[in-house]
Design a protein that fits this description.
- The complex is a heterodimer of chains A (185) and B (276).
- Helix content of chain A is 72%, strand content 0%.
- Chain A has 185 residues and is an all-alpha fold.
- Chain A folds into 2 domains: 91 residues, Rna Polymerase Sigma Factor, Chain: A; 93 residues, Arc Repressor Mutant, subunit A (Orthogonal Bundle), CATH 1.10.10.
- In chain A, α7 crosses α8.
- Chain A is elongated and about 50 Å long.
- In chain A, 37% of the residues are buried.
- Chain B is of the alpha+beta class.
- Chain B has 3 domains: 70 residues, no CATH class; 70 residues, no CATH class; 99 residues, PDZ domain (Pdz3 Domain, Roll), CATH 2.30.42.10.
- Chain B is 49% helix and 17% strand.
- In chain B, strands 3, 4, 5, 6, 7 and 8 form a 6-stranded antiparallel β-sheet that branches. A two-stranded antiparallel sheet of chain B has the order 1-2.
- In chain B, α2 crosses α4.
- The chains are: A mainly alpha (185), B alpha+beta (276).
- Chains A and B meet through α2, α3, α5, α6 and α8 of A and α2, α4, α5 and β3 of B.
């Protein structure tokens, strides 16, 4: 396998092999981190941190899982650890005072942007559960293990997050019915 | 004991009556609808309400569509210079060995000069001098040698990116044929989709930016909406070509919207212009 060869070379310190591995998985890593943290600048820093950590720990990768899966889990952990640390530093919900989306979009791709904006505006606690469950497809058991909470807490957070999403996707400038048709994809 | 039993029956009956009344007159909450999405038959009363209440059923459908859209979100492009930044971080974490008087050492396994810390001032001075040499001062001898070997990737990037953008085709070349034909490469490396009424304006939504291309150098990212180039509105891809042609090789501005904020940059310098 080409990727196995790249991993072997990267373990030996071959920078071009590392670059090729990055090229192969950069989007997946960045996307996972970006969705969880809801912020471009922070996502850029954490994505880089995840890659540096991955190359530092590459010796520990034994090939039991696919490299992409291992890397994805590592990147997710970097993002979740950051969220955990930042929530300890401040109990203020980052999304609480952000402006609501003001425009309904009738283009499917732009509607997708409305959705992404709404995710970014969620409080971090809601966002991480919604992203892990509804976007990344984790089960409540997996989320509970990762966040050190009970599956019941994960479910409860998810329902609250979806309700908040629905609320955020109601543009203030148009009537409810009009918005529902346009923004709900 | 008898009294307690009667009270319990009355309380249960009252609760049941309240629930029946509620299901007939009130709608389900957003959280109740969300629960039904994952476990449709969990709460029989909520489900019965959903079957009889048109408004709640419509809301259930909307939740369902949002969830489907969430599961189908596309991957995002990382910044074009991510690998350069990662390499710089990897470099900064490598062990220092064989440090010389000047503060440089040679990493035997990787064929690269690395920095020491004790003579940081000397290192910085030589580094700045080396940048000057690389930029065209053409100083002779060992100074030229140091310059060539101590430059950081980030500093050489503009030159390298220019070469790639102007001379080397990329894998997306065929999809960007109209832009390539213009003979100039300000937007080379990006895919666009026309959008209407985005933040009240029409423009070209950037779907994807290939790293280390001209569009990446300009600073475009997926999700940006380019609204004008060279002070000409950009509603269709041919508008970009028109703007490039109209510039006749002179620098021109490109304006786009990112996260509701307007950004303006000059091509090819990348200079950020104040919002007009």
């Amino acid at each position: 396998m080409e990727e196995d060869n790249l991993i072997t070379r990267a373990k030996a310190g071959d920078r071009s092999a590392m670059g090729e591995l990055h090229e192969l998985h950069a989007r997946r890593v960045y996307t996972a981190v970006r969705r969880l943290v809801g912020n471009d600048q922070l996502a850029e820093d954490l994505s880089q941190e995840a890659w540096v950590r991955a190359f530092e720990k590459l010796e520990l990768f034994r090939g039991e899982a696919a490299f992409g899966t291992w890397l994805y889990r590592l990147a997710t952990n970097v993002a979740l650890n950051h969220l955990r640390r930042s929530s300890k530093r401040s109990s203020v919900e980052a999304g609480a005072n952000l402006p609501r989306i003001t425009k309904a979009q009738d283009d499917v791709i732009v509607a997708r942007h409305v959705l992404i904006q709404a995710i970014d505006q969620l409080p971090p606690g809601y966002r991480r559960v919604l992203v892990l469950h509804d976007v990344e497809g984790w089960t409540h058991q997996e989320i509970a293990r990762s966040l050190s909470c009970s599956p019941g807490t994960s479910k409860s957070q998810l329902h609250k997050a979806r309700a908040r999403m629905r609320e955020l996707m109601q543009p203030v400038s148009s009537s409810n019915d009009d918005m529902r048709d346009k923004a709900s994809l | 004991m008898m009294t307690c039993a009667i009270k319990r029956v009355c309380r249960n009956f009252g609760e049941r009556y309240r629930q029946m009344n509620q299901s007939a007159s009130e709608h389900l909450t957003a959280e109740q609808i969300s629960e039904l999405l994952d476990e449709p038959r969990k709460d029989k009363e909520d489900w019965l309400h959903l079957e009889t209440c048109e408004e709640c059923r419509a809301e259930f459908e909307r939740f369902s569509r949002i969830r489907m859209a969430l599961s189908a979100l596309p991957d995002l492009d990382p910044p074009a210079d991510e690998w350069t930044a990662i390499e710089a971080k990897l470099d900064s974490k490598e062990p220092r060995i064989n440090q010389s008087v000047l503060g440089f050492g040679w990493h035997a396994g990787r064929s690269r000069l690395i920095f020491g810390s004790r003579q940081l001032a000397v290192t910085v001075a030589v580094f700045v001098f080396a940048v000057g040499v690389f930029a065209g001062l053409q100083l002779p001898g060992p100074i030229g040698f140091f310059a060539e070997n101590t430059l950081q990737p980030g500093l050489t990037a503009p030159v390298v990116q220019d070469k790639i953008a102007l001379n080397e085709p990329t894998e997306l070349e065929s999809q960007r044929a109209p832009i390539q034909q213009a003979g100039t490469s300000a937007f080379e490396g990006a895919e666009f989709e026309p959008v209407r009424r985005y933040e009240g304006r029409s423009g070209l939504l950037v779907l994807r930016v290939t790293p280390r291309t001209a569009a990446a150098k300009l600073g475009l990212r997926s999700g940006d909406v380019v609204v004008d180039a060279g002070n000409l509105p950009t509603r269709q891809v041919p508008d970009l070509i028109q703007a490039i042609n109209a510039s006749q090789g002179s620098p021109f501005s490109v304006r786009w919207i990112r996260d509701g904020r307007e950004m303006v940059k000059l091509w090819p310098s990348g200079e950020i212009r104040p919002k007009e």
